[in-house]
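Q: For a teaching session next week I want to show students how multiple molecules come together into a single three-dimensional assembly. I've collected the sequence lines for a complex. Could you give me the predicted structure tokens for the whole thing so I can convert them for display?
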Amino acid sequence: MKKHSRMSRINDAGRHPGRSRLSGGAKDLACAAMRLFLMIAIFAAPALLAAQDLPLFRWENFTTANGLPDNHVFCVLVDGNRVWAGTENGLGLYENGAWKVFRPVEDSKEQSLAHQAVLSLAVDTSTGDVWAGTMGGLSRISAGRIDTFTQLTSGLSNDIVYGVGVQGDFVWTATAAGVSRLNTRTGEWALFNERNTPMQEIWTYAVSIAEDKVYYAVWGGGVLEYDVKTERWKDYNDPDGETELVLMKDQGLIHEITTSVSYVDKILWVATYFGASRYDGRYWHNFLQKDSGLPSNFLNQVKAIDANRAWFSTDKGLAYYDGTNWAVYRPALDTHKPEMLVRDTAGVVKKVSVETAPAHNYVLGLDFQGDDLWVATAKGLSHGIRQKSSVSTAKQSARRR
Amino acid sequence: MPARTISATSFRRMLNVLAVCVMALLAVAARPASNQSTKISKERYLSPLEMASSADGRLLYVVCQDSDEVRVVDLQSSKVISSVAVGRMPRGIAMSPDGRRLYITNAWSDTVSVIDAATLQVVQTLPTGPEPSGVVSDSNGTSLYVANRLSGDVSVIDLKSEQETKRLLAGRGASYLALSPDGKWIYCTHIYPNPGAFRTPPNSEITVIDTARQMVVERKPLHNVAGVFHVALSADGRLGVAAQLRPKNLIPLAHVEHGWAFGDSVTLFGPDVGEPVQIPIDELERYYALPWGVAIAPDKSKIFLTTAGSESVTVVDVARLLNTVHTRRQPFVNDLSASADYVQARIPVGHNPRGVLLSPDGKRLYVANRLDDNIAVIDTAADKIISTIDLGGPRNVDAIRRGERLFYTAGFAFQGQFGCANCHLDATIDGLQWDLEPDGFGKDIVDNRSLENLAGTEPFKWNGGNADMPTECGPRTEKFFFRSQSFNQQQLTDLVTFVFSLPYRPNRSRLANGDLSPAQERGKAIFERTKSKNGKPIPDSNQCGTCHSGPKYTNQKQVDAGTGKSTDRSPVIDVPQLPNVAYSAPYLHDGSARSLEEIWTVFNPKDTHGVSNDLTKDELNDLIEYLKTL
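A: Of course. Below is the structure for the complete assembly, covering every listed component.
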């Protein structure tokens, strides 16, 4: 009866004015059809959601054999049709099918890359400048010119720059000694650390930037949130403290040792060495290997597509979560043969036959190039080329039922 | 009684004594200049700098730097018919594609004045970066590009919203812009070299902006170049020309007599030449100092180049030039005999010629004689001046203007090689470190200091060796730098008067209301502290405010702050003034500190240049933010 009243209100509101011209019998029929539709929507929605397609990729892997500066790839950045790879021994730029390598030059007349180990990358989409966080400072690569900022030559707080992000005129860095923010217009550096924020540790590890917020993964200190409007900081911590036991799941951040944050569509995703977390501003939801499709609780990066979908870089493969189902892409842990695992909403895991896989299980990061992926691993850079076909979880779910 | 013979030694001694006396007399004679500097009334000269013409070629719009206005000249009558007041220290001018708007950059207001060309009224004022200089509109008139000298970038301004949408990184001292004829590219040059390692050859660039993407897409490297001025494109877009200096700052300036201080040259780029190529415009025994303004004839037959220090226009035959470039495969920018192959004429003009503009038909070349307040009109077929347009400046040429002419001319130097303004570009710095003294290679390296508001900062020179400005500008300049004729007493007085008249540029780090930001306040407290963080008193001699005291933050003394180098003859250094210190990188007497931070992070290991090693990085940053406000 209540539902009927609600339907009447919808019709009365005039959203479908044509229907008012129907006869009484026709009205009843329409109401019955609508009821049926609502019933289907309410009871069948999880199944419909679960029956989503999970993406298939053909993986092309790059190593030093085909021009990558080093096989240990810390980070990857897609900039249009260009791909930047930060490695342990140089910054690689893949463009027009060829690699160009940037490294520090000791006796260079001009400034060169701050350090050969490139830990983080960000592009200023407004100017096209690329910022590289390294183990020896921060470098800006602008149309081939490199300007370097270090703790000796600039206001940068520390030369180990784990994370970097661009927000308008500001370049935010996550360093081994807190947060450094450069105003590129004025040249002013602002430092944020234990003295002016609730930062329990100063080892900041990653940064995620949106228009309204800036989030930091603080290694051993949870997550820090900077509100752009109020210019205030707030911290999010594991209610269990630093314990590795999960005493209160979904009541807060999964662990203090955070490695990555991704803030998309007002949803915060967090990667830690002990699982992942999703926070919508009110509720936390945590993901662990034992009760999700994560192949490991040891996460190096999380990168969200939107409020529901995210990619996880773990030490046991690359994982994708579509809001319900999971997929894992990796060389099999035992045979090292290409492997794709799919886990549906009921928890059933199946293997999908694939011919290619990312270069290595140990995944450090990824970036999107349209529907394609670029993945940084410990043994090379991988290009995941999205295939037209995909893996449906519907049959599996049906089988399960 | 036989005449007493004088030994060679005695004779030399007498000469030395005589020289000292002459110097002292000169110094005394010229000394009032510094004291009078504040009393001398300054004429309001015009100082025409850049020009643009109306689409029909009937009107000439002239940016007048010192009178803060644009004067409008009717070219048929050669009369000034109007003037439009704009912001402070206007520097650049551009016309909108439809000819209905004029854009004027105001270097000291950090704005662009938009002038309605029909009503000659300022109708808009647009914000820019610090010290806007060159300006161009894109070909469809939707965006304006402005080169900001102090921030070394290019502002992109959306003309519809009247907002600056982004800044693109350019070279240090970004100043001049040119739009390619097809509207696809903007080229930007810069007057200071890009930052580089200490005592390495300077490097500059031509920054190329893609106007469709509004991004920098290329940087054409200019090796061994510091000081790049106007850039121009031929009408077919196949030849680009940028005027430039090639300073030889790494070798002792004692080699001036060998012709080895500055190479006046241009860089050619574009399809006509392939890779960028640098070419000399000097001759074997005559230099054409400070090439500044560039114009290319519409038919690409000639390049016109103002040489601001030599008071002339150099005319280059393009066909012969391209033939030389294509024939000589090896770099020849240091072969001064090459210019004979392509320089067609040298046309003497007025004092400090800067901007050049060709009439739409290419028959007339207009040259802004900045220090004469007039425009020279050159018949480009005959390569001769046919008339001069008086812009209506003061008739009286006062001491400051006479001194300014001396400052900018290269006429006193051996073979006309350079003037004061070669190093003090636009009376500022050049961002270089020079090996000035004849004491051996790499000894007593000195950084170029700012000239702003110098009265009351005596003595001068890196070690305080010159007690006053007449000494600094007199024998030191004449004998040591110029290797040529001396200034007479009046000239020296005028030169000193001009130098002392140079004001501070506006400081952009101070808040508009005069308050200090929280970081600046914290930095001020550090600057003024008397105790280190552990509570230990800091000796007076090691407190910032002891040496950097007084209105100009110098106690005018010489101290050993531990910043001397083994190559210096003495570790005792003159305490420099600090106002506008942010604009004069690099730092320390020899320019070895590339940034303010390095003064303390690298060159103060024993806390001899103030106590800084107890500071956290936050606190050092605060100190630097405060120093920027001085």
